[in-house]
Amino acid sequence: MSATDQSNAEADIQDLRWERACASADVTPDEPKAVTIDGHEIGLFRTGEGLFAIDNVCTHEYAYLTKGLVEDGVVECPLHEARFCVKTGACLHGPATRPVATFAVREEDGVVLVGIPHA
Ligand code: FES
After folding, report:
1. Which candidate among 14, 19, 97, 105 keeps its CA 20 to 30 Å from the CA of 118?
2. Distance CA 13, CA 93 (A)
3. Is 98 near ligand 1, meaning CB less than 6 Å away?
4. Which residues form the domain of 29?
């Protein structure tokens, strides 16, 4: 990442509105958590690498990824088994072809906060 990219990333983070999503304890490696914030359907996933927030709706058809199986940081859609990286949102296996959106996420005092971009 170049210095310009980094400063753009920092500027992007400052453009976020941090919203309370749930208690930290509500998201475990075995139990992802679905939340809706300002109309964004968001899936929260905890892995060995940390806590991640992605769009909870599969890009293939309409299914909630938080209802799928999660293993090694990859979630499998419960409907047709497309797979997505919960860290990057990348689509790793079809039938979906597009990635899911990712959201900035952090934890503070036992609360999960998700960064919602200003409209
Ligand atoms: S709806 Fe997710 S793979 Fe079809």
Report:
1. 97
2. 29
3. no
4. 3-117
What is the CATH classification number for the domain harbouring 81?
Answer: 2.102.10.10
Q: 63 in ligand 1 pocket by Cβ < 6 Å? A: yes
> Counting atoms of ligand 1 from 1, which one is nearest the CA of 59?
2
Specify the range with the lowest mean pLDDT, choosing from 6-15, 66-75, 79-88, 107-116: 6-15
- The answer to whether 115 touches 103, Cβ cutoff 8 Å, is yes
- Do residues 67 and 59 lie in contact, with contact meaning Cβ atoms separated by under 8 Å? no
> Which residue owns the Cα nearest ligand 1 atom 1?
61
- Summarised one tens digit per residue, pLDDT across range 15-26 is 899 999 999 999
Q: What's the domain count of the chain?
A: 1
